[in-house]
Amino acid sequence: MQACGPLLAQIEPAKEPDSPGLLQKLAARVRAAKNKVLAIGELAQGFAAAYYEDHIQPVTDSYVEWASGVKSSVWEKIQTTIDHYTPFNTTQVD
Asked: What global pTM score does this model have?
């Protein structure tokens, strides 16, 4: 313990690492970076929407219409088959 006394006396006391001005500058830089990222995200979202409308939607619309037509056709066939299938049709002849 006695040997550590002179060494501790030579060590400078720890300085306060963060001053209020530094923290405010850091917070301002973080806000600026956040705003830039959000702006880039909005730009990318707009680009993605335009790309979808120009390139993807015209292709997929035809497939959606085709699938809808197939579904309607199959459903009509099922309904017609059910309407014509009457196994319990009992006609009483007097």
From this structure: 0.41
